[in-house]
Design brief:
Length: 64
């Protein structure tokens, strides 16, 4: 149980950071569609990360 919580937290943080980084990179491209997607990822990246962590925890994902 604790292992599933730790893995879910790690996945949530990694997904949140990747979304934030990718969003900021896309914003710097200054292409309109890339800016739109980048702003979405930058604003909602942590929410996507938490959802990914919850999916990992409650789904039948990787368990140590």
């Amino acid at each position: 149980m604790i292992a599933r919580i730790v893995i879910a937290l790690v996945i949530a943080v990694v997904v949140g950071l990747v979304c934030l980084l990718l969003g900021n990179i896309l914003v710097t491209l200054r292409v309109p569609i890339a800016v739109t997607i980048g702003e979405f990822l930058a604003q909602w990246g942590w929410v996507l990360g938490v959802l990914a962590g919850l999916w990992q925890f409650f789904g039948k994902g990787f368990v140590i």
